[in-house]
Structure formats: structure tokens, C-alpha cells
Write a structure and sequence with these properties.
The complex is a heterotrimer of chains A (about 100), B (about 170) and C (about 300).
Chain A lengths: L3 H21 L3 H26 L3 H31 L13
Helix pairs in contact in A: 1-2, 2-3
Chain B lengths: L1 H21 L3 H21 L3 H26 L13 H21 L11 H4 L4 H10 L2 H22 L5
Chain C lengths: L19 H11 L10 H17 L10 E3 L2 E3 L9 H22 L3 H32 L4 H6 L10 H4 L2 H14 L24 H26 L14 H21 L7 H29 L5
Antiparallel strand pairs in C: 1-2
Helix pairs in contact in C: 1-8, 2-3, 2-8, 3-4, 4-7, 4-10, 7-8, 7-10, 8-9
Classes of the chains: A mainly alpha (about 100), B mainly alpha (about 170), C mainly alpha (about 300).
Chain lengths: ~100, ~170, ~300
């Protein structure tokens, strides 16, 4: 018998690791990967609640989240590819022309 | 027994997640993320959500991450070089902020009551394809149709953004 | 192999050359294990395992016989039984892409990389047609559980097999997609011996190369087993009710015939060019698979007695 809070803790830890990753890393693709990690931690929360309350709507929400993540990954990677073609660098610090 | 399985998969998930952040080469980060995704899929199976678990492997680990790995290989993304980073102070600010976030999570989660995991067969069959499919095509039909439009938009957007000039 | 191509094949080792594969396998173990100088050692060693493991793991859901009684206990002849068995097979097919992609990348060789990326793109393109061709079977059997799919094909003296009932096109689409998924001729440009210097496994030698080749053959057997289960009635055959052990014989016979067709095609057809291959996958097989699903759904609605 696993308490629900264990799943929620695991999800919180994964979310925090993803958030710290987005904050710390400078490579655009790695930031993207950490965003996907955060999305997965939310998926885990939803599925945990769906299991403990026997509600299938949460699992459908997970399905939608996965679909949105797929669409966003496709478009995001296309953007990253075009940025790379223009600048030859994926470091987000180099793409700060809109600042100041 | 279930606790042992949970701990094993949770440790794999957290270790792979930490590896995603720590590694300098994006390819290793991507591979570690695949490890996290698969261990999360195992946790979904433990929560009796078999359809979502299979979907996670097919869609996330099998398609989205393949896309990431492709892009990393095609662009030959260089590894991070921390010694020439411009904003190095961020690396030292990140983990304390993460600790603050975990403290907030503790503040919320210590009030979560110990709901029991439902064991009656009707609750166990929530995650089967039949029940997910029935719900998807009756109660939740609109989100399903909207996601199909969303995917169409993503396909068009990705093609337009990925074109070279002069194509 | 030599017989199909009307030439003398290897016939020295063992009676009539039957032990040749064994000799080949032993030869691989004794060769020197070369790792290229600048190659990424961890990924180089990991890639063949990543390719082999999903290929073998598919077997645990395939039912290769009906229930038999052995020493007084009833044993159901499948390793395990998932509610989502068919999705599990698809998931493992998706995971097989990583082995090839990482093999090409870690070899530090541009031919390997090109071959690997082409092969991965081909595999993920044909996964779609593969999955959709299976949906027709799913509509007809009403379950993702492979055991139930086989049981739904019983009766009518073998005419209730899915390949005859509603799915001849489903089987053809599945077979062509499986040929492309397993990188077999006529879709084996990424590992073509004459064009890309053996593609993604150029730099591999000895046991790692052996693992790649073994994994490819395993993939063939796996695809044949899945095709036999989904379309040819699995272990169904005359007389299975009274002699349950016959079911294993029937299953093995069906898998053997399908593997023979795989090998037959390998030595008969020439290779596709890469753009022809991708055109076939996206512009022909995918619409054909979708039409198959629509057709199956229509037939199932009009004749509910066929279930």
C-alpha cells in the first residue's frame, strides 16, 4: 500500500529538478528537455490522482498533455533548427538581442 | 513488495532526471530523459493506468525523444562549455531556489490525507483501453477533436519553420 | 538462400550446410573486437544491446499455444498476458529505433551516421502504417490482448482467421511495414552492402556486430510471430481442442512459413531507393492503412455477426 503522498512527492521532486534545469542550463535543447521533464512530472500527478480516485478523466487529461507536448516539441525543435541555422550557436545567452 | 518496486522506479527516475541537468552533452541528457520516461511508465502501470503507460512509451519515449535525438545528431549540438559561460552566477542560484520549491511542496503535501488505493474491480479497470476509449469518445470528445487540429497546426508550423530559404 | 538464387550456397558445414549459421555465430565470437579511435565508447557498446533487447522482449506476450496439461497442472502457453499486449508490441518497436541511431552516432563515421539517420527515419515512418494496420485487427477482435485475439479466430475450420475474414489488405500492409521496420530487403538501403559501406554497422566487429545481426534476425522472427498471431490464427488449427499440444506445432509451422516468406523476398527483390522507400511509406501505405481501417469498421458495422 503506497500512500498517495509518495507519488506526489516524487512528482514535486521531478518538477523541481526540471525547473532548476531550465534555470541553470544554457543550451536551448537541454532547456527544452527539462521542460519535457516538468510536463512528465505533472502527468505523474494526474495519473496518481486518477488511480486513487478511480477517475478516468484525469487519464484523458494526461493523453491531451502528451499530445500537446508532442506538438510543442515539433514546433519548438523547428524553431531551434532555424535559430541554429542563423546563428550557428545554441547558447541562449547569445540570443539576447532583444534585451536593453 | 509494491513499496520496493516503487522505490526502485522512483530512484531510477530521480537519478535520470538529475543526470539530465548535470550532463554537459545534450545527447546524454536526452538519453537520461528516456530513462526517466520509461521508469515513469512503469509507475503508471503500478497505478493501473495501462493505456497511458503504453502511450507514454509509444508517444513520448518512442517518438518525441527520437525527434530530439535526431535534431541533436543532425545539428551536431556541441557540449556545454561552462568555463566560457556569461552568466555563471545562475548555476549557484539554481539549487537554492529548487530547495525553496521543495520546502513549499512539503508545506502543501504534509496535509495530504492517506487515501487508500481502491481495490474493487470496477476501480481497477479504470485504466484499461476500453474505459479510456469510452470516456474519450463520449464525455471528452471535444478535447480529442481539438487536439487533432492542434497536431495539424504543429505539422504545418514545423514544416514552414524548418524550410530553408529558397525551397 | 543459394537455392532461391540458383547458385551453390554454403554446403560444407554439417549435412547440407545446415550448421552454417552456427559456424557463423562462432566466427563472430572469435573475431577481434575493434573500437574506433574517436568513438564514444559507452554508446558504442550500448547500442547493440539497445537494439537487441526490445526485439527479444516482444516474445513475452505472444501466445504460442493453447492451454496444455503437464504433470497434472494446466499451463497456459504464453509468458504473460497484458491487457494492452498489442500496444506493448508497438512500444517495443518504437524503442528499437534508438539502437540504430546511437550505433551510427557513436561510430564517429559519416557513413554510419547517414545510414543510421536514414534507417531511423525509415523505421519511424513505417511504424505509423504498422500501427494502423493493426487497428483493423483490433476492430475485429475487440481487444488488445493477444490471447483474446487468437481465441477470437477459432472456429469455421480455419476460415475465421483474420487474414481471410476481413483483413487481406491488413495483412499485406502489416507485412510490408514489418519488412521496412526490420530493415529487410527490399528496404535495407541503410545497411546496404554495396552502397553505404554497410551503413550503421560499418565500424562494428565481433560480438557487437553479431548482436546487431542476431537482433535483426530476431526482429524477423518477432514480426512473423506477431503476424501469425494477429492474422493467421496463432495456434489455431484442426484438432486443437482434443490434442492441445498440437497448437504449438501449428504455431511454429505458421511462424516458419512466414519467416520463409521473409527470406524468400530477401533474395528475390532488388532494393528500393531511399526516396522511393519514403514515398511508399507515406504516400501509399499510410492512406492504404487508413482506408483499411475505414473499410473494416464499415464491414463490422454492417455484419455484426462476423465478430
Amino acid at each position: 500500500m503506497i500512500p498517495l503522498s509518495w507519488y506526489l512527492w516524487l512528482s514535486a521532486v521531478l518538477f523541481t529538478i526540471g525547473a532548476v534545469g531550465v534555470f541553470v542550463k544554457r543550451n536551448a535543447i537541454t532547456i527544452f528537455l527539462c521542460i519535457e521533464l516538468m510536463l512528465n512530472s505533472v502527468n505523474l500527478t494526474l495519473v496518481a490522482f486518477s488511480g486513487y480516485f478511480a477517475d478516468v478523466g484525469a487519464q484523458l487529461f494526461v493523453f491531451i498533455v502528451m499530445t500537446v507536448a508532442a506538438a510543442e516539441a515539433a514546433v519548438g525543435l523547428a524553431i531551434i533548427i532555424s535559430i541554429f541555422r542563423n546563428r550557428a550557436s545554441l547558447n541562449v545567452d547569445d540570443a539576447s538581442q532583444l534585451k536593453d | 513488495m509494491e513499496k520496493a518496486l516503487f522505490i526502485v522506479f522512483a530512484v531510477i527516475a530521480v537519478t535520470s532526471a538529475v543526470n539530465v541537468v548535470i550532463q554537459r552533452s545534450p545527447l546524454y541528457s536526452a538519453l537520461s530523459l528516456i530513462g526517466t520516461l520509461i521508469s515513469l511508465s512503469a509507475l503508471y502501470v503500478m497505478l493501473h493506468a495501462q493505456f497511458i503507460a503504453a502511450m507514454q512509451v509509444i508517444v513520448y519515449a518512442g517518438a518525441i525523444m527520437v525527434l530530439f535525438v535526431f535534431v541533436i545528431m543532425l545539428l551536431n549540438v556541441p557540449a556545454d562549455a561552462p568555463h566560457i559561460e556569461k552568466q555563471k552566477w545562475l548555476r549557484y542560484l539554481g539549487p537554492p531556489l529548487g530547495a525553496i520549491m521543495l520546502a513549499e511542496a512539503y508545506y502543501v503535501l504534509e496535509h495530504v490525507p492517506n487515501w487508500p488505493f481502491p481495490t474493487e474491480p470496477s476501480a481497477r479497470s479504470i485504466g484499461t483501453t476500453l474505459s479510456v476509449g469510452m470516456a474519450m469518445f463520449t464525455d471528452y470528445l471535444l478535447p480529442f477533436e481539438v487536439t487533432s487540429v492542434l497536431i495539424l497546426m504543429a505539422v504545418v508550423g514545423a514544416i514552414v519553420l524548418g524550410k530553408r530559404e529558397g525551397d | 538462400m543459394g537455392w532461391i538464387q540458383l547458385r551453390k550456397g554454403p554446403n560444407r558445414v554439417g549435412p547440407g550446410g545446415l550448421l552454417q549459421p552456427l559456424a557463423d555465430g562462432l566466427k563472430f565470437m572469435f573475431k577481434e573486437d575493434i573500437i574506433p579511435l574517436q568513438a564514444n565508447r559507452l554508446l558504442f557498446a550500448l547500442a547493440p544491446m539497445l537494439f537487441l533487447v526490445p526485439a527479444v522482449m516482444t516474445f513475452i506476450v505472444i501466445p504460442y499455444g493453447s492451454e496444455v496439461t503437464l504433470f497434472g497442472r494446466t499451463i497456459a502457453l504464453h509468458v504473460t498476458r497484458f491487457d494492452v499486449g498489442l500496444l506493448y508490441v508497438l512500444a517495443l518497436a518504437s524503442l528499437g529505433v534508438y539502437g540504430i541511431a546511437l550505433a551510427g552516432w557513436s561510430s564517429n563515421n559519416k557513413y554510419s551516421l547517414i545510414g543510421a539517420l536514414r534507417s531511423s527515419a525509415q523505421m519511424i515512418s513505417y511504424e505509423l502504417a504498422l500501427g494502423l494496420s493493426i487497428v483493423g485487427v483490433l476492430i475485429q477482435s475487440g481487444s488488445l490482448d493477444l490471447v483474446k485475439i487468437v481465441e477470437a479466430q477459432g472456429g469455421w475450420h480455419g476460415l475465421k482467421w483474420n487474414v481471410f475474414l476481413v483483413q487481406p489488405f491488413g495483412f499485406i500492409i502489416f507485412f510490408i511495414s514489418a519488412l521496412a521496420e526490420t530493415n529487410r530487403v527490399p528496404f535495407d538501403l541503410p545497411e546496404a552492402e554495396a552502397e553505404l559501406v554497410a551503413g550503421y554497422h560499418t565500424e562494428y566487429s565481433s560480438m557487437k556486430m553479431g548482436m546487431f545481426l542476431m537482433a535483426e534476425e530476431f526482429n524477423v522472427i518477432t514480426s512473423s510471430s506477431v503476424a501469425a498471431t494477429l492474422f493467421f490464427g496463432g495456434w489455431m488449427g484442426p484438432g486443437v481442442g482434443t490434442y492441445p499440444w498440437l497448437s504449438i506445432v501449428y504455431f511454429l509451422a505458421k511462424v516458419f512459413i512466414l519467416v520463409f516468406v521473409f527470406v524468400w523476398i530477401r533474395f528475390t527483390l532488388p532494393r528500393f531507393r531511399y526516396d522511393q522507400l519514403m514515398t511508399l511509406g507515406w504516400k501509399f501505405l499510410l492512406p492504404a492503412a487508413i482506408l483499411n481501417v475505414i473499410f473494416t469498421a464499415t464491414v463490422m458495422m454492417l455484419f455484426p455477426g462476423l465478430r
